[in-house]
Specification:
- The structure is a single chain.
- This protein is of the alpha/beta class and 113 residues long.
- The protein has 4 helices and 4 strands; from the N terminus they run E-H-E-H-E-H-E-H.
- The protein has helices at 11-18, 36-45, 61-73, 94-102, and strands spanning 4-8, 25-29, 53-55, 78-79.
- A 4-stranded parallel beta sheet has the order 2-1-3-4.
- Helix 3 (61-73) links the parallel strand 3 and strand 4.
- The protein is globular, with a radius of gyration of 13 Å.
């Protein structure tokens, strides 16, 4: 079975998530919204149709736009939300990220729970 995939917006989001997970998870940065060619490339490279995919985007206009796009392109993907007060994944406290990930059965270091 292929490892789970978490799709995030930027490198700082990826770094924040990597601090808490203990499971072998592939984290993909979109660096904003995706063009058709870039999305097709990710789809093929990471075999996204054959994996458990999670989307963890910021609680802002760009994040909502990315979620909307990925909801169309990857209807099987599950969404992981951070509390709107934090706005950005990169600035969300680690314990909040850990709780959000655990709610989707992604293994995290228990010190963050």
């Amino acid at each position: 079975m292929l490892p789970k995939v978490i799709i995030v917006e930027g490198l700082t989001d990826k770094q924040q998530i990597k601090k808490v997970i203990t499971e072998d998870v592939t984290i993909i940065c979109t660096n904003g919204t995706l063009g058709i060619e870039r999305f097709d490339e990710l789809l093929e490279t990471y075999q996204l149709d054959d994996r458990d995919v999670y989307i963890m985007a910021d609680e802002d206009k760009a994040g909502w736009k990315l979620r909307k796009q990925l909801k169309r392109e990857l209807p099987h993907a599950e969404h992981i939300y951070i509390h709107p007060d934090y706005k950005e994944v990169a600035t969300t406290p680690l314990h909040e990220i850990a709780h959000a990930l655990v709610s989707k059965n992604i293994e995290v270091n228990p010190i963050f729970l």
